[in-house]
Amino acid sequence: MADLPExxxxxxxxxxxxxxxxxxxxLLQFAEKMPALPDWxxxxxxxxxxxxxxxxxxxxxxxxxxGRLHFYFDIPPESPTVRGFASVLQEGLDNTxxxxxxxxxxDFYLQMGLQDVLSGQRLNGISAILAHMKTLAQEA
Length: 140
What we know:
By secondary structure, this protein is mainly α. It has a single domain (6-139), classed as Sufe protein. Chain: A. It is 47% helix and 11% strand. It has helices spanning 6-17, 21-32, 39-42, 80-92, 98-102, 120-139, and strands at 49-50, 59-65, 68-74. A 3-stranded antiparallel beta sheet has the order 1-2-3. It starts with 5 loop residues before the first helix and ends with a helix. The mean pLDDT is 92.
């Protein structure tokens, strides 16, 4: 997939080597390593955008630095699947340009095989998070 930034492509490939429930377990590892909001952003919580299409409360903030984007998420720990996917996007799209973010195919997660372990409703939420990130990238 030529449209994926290098780190996101590596993550997608790692998932493609997982079989069955291993995919879910790997996603949960990403959830566990999602960083907390930085202190400076915790004070600006009202400036985080909510991804309204998700059943889980998902808040995201995009920061641009020298033409490169950094995304920050606030997602409850009780939603490990959503946190895991957001963490994949956060890590895979960190330090990318707005054009690189908007070029990511909406269904890139199919390459990861997540449709085999997640419900359609969860996949819709995943798509909504990426779509919201793309909107923030276009506004940056």
